[in-house]
Backbone:
């Protein structure tokens, strides 16, 4: 039973990879299940056995996108460590995710497929908000510990992450610019931390 299951998994992975390639190159609306099957090297029946519709296949791609996103942001707040050090770890994880070629490919597919579908766009926004909740929880925990000002934690988390996306995500997605080199990534992260902490950190009382 194990060998057939492994073969099934390989076919499913091939179908998803083919769909990502076809959606990226030709767009969601133009791409057909026939073309995806041909690119994956499987029959159309096999494709439909795994994914009843093109929408279901697209949803699987979204799931992979969000899964890769949330895996990078699992950092808990610690009252024993400086805020800047903790924030750097969070932003470095975010930067690493946005520099991953597979993640960028998935993001391009997702964004391109939403252009003519407000429903899909809203679904992406909702999922992205869920996946960034870990960052929001970190901000809220630091506020409860009296180290960050009592602003809307969702707003603050989104704001600092947007500082990274302005340099390391949107230019790559919309303009085809290359991913940032290591020194530039570090500079963007340090600058984002400067702005965030200048606006929200509560100065420690002098001893």
Residues:
């Amino acid at each position: 039973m194990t060998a057939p299951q492994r073969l099934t998994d390989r076919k499913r992975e091939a179908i998803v990879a083919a769909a990502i390639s076809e959606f990226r190159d030709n767009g969601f609306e133009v791409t057909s299940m026939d073309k995806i099957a041909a690119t994956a090297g499987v029959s159309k029946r096999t494709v439909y056995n795994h994914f009843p519709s093109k929408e279901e296949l697209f949803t699987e791609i979204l799931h992979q996108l969000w899964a890769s996103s949330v895996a990078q942001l699992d950092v808990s707040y610690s009252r024993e460590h400086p805020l800047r050090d903790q924030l750097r770890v969070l932003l470095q994880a975010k930067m690493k995710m946005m520099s991953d070629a597979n993640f960028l490919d998935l993001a391009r597919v997702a964004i391109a497929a939403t252009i003519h579908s407000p429903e899909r766009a809203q679904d992406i926004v909702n999922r992205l908000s869920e996946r960034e909740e870990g960052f929001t929880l970190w901000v809220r925990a630091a506020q409860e510990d009296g180290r960050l000002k009592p602003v809307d934690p969702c707003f603050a988390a989104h704001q600092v992450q947007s500082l990274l996306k302005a340099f390391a995500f949107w230019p790559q997605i919309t303009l085809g610019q290359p991913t940032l080199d290591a020194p530039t990534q570090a500079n963007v992260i340090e600058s984002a931390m400067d702005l965030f902490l200048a606006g929200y950190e509560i100065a420690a009382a002098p001893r």
Notes: Residues 2-52 form a domain with the Arc Repressor Mutant, subunit A fold (CATH 1.10.10.60). The chain has two domains: 2-52, 61-200. The radius of gyration is 20 Å.
